[in-house]
Amino acid sequence: MVQGIGRRGFLKGTAALAASAVGGFACVEIASAAPIEVPTVDKLVMRVLIDSAHDQFLKPATVQGVLHQPPGSGRGADYRQVLHNQWGLSLFLESQREAEARAILLDFGYSPDALLNNIGILKVDPSKVDALIVSHGHHDHYGGLNGFLAKYRSTLAPDLKLYAGGEDNFCHRVSPTGAQGQFTDFGQLDRRELAAQKVATVLCETPTVVAGHAFTTGQIKRRSIEHILPNTFVERGIKDGLGCDAGHYSAAELAGKPIPDEHVHEHATCFNIKGKGLVVISSCGHVGIVNSVRQAQEVSGVDKVHAVVGGFHLGPAPKDYLQQVVAEIRKLQPDVVIPMHCSGLNFALEAQAQMPENVIVPTTGSRLTFGA
Question: Ranges for the Metallo-beta-lactamase domain (predicted)?
Answer without folding.
Answer: 100-153
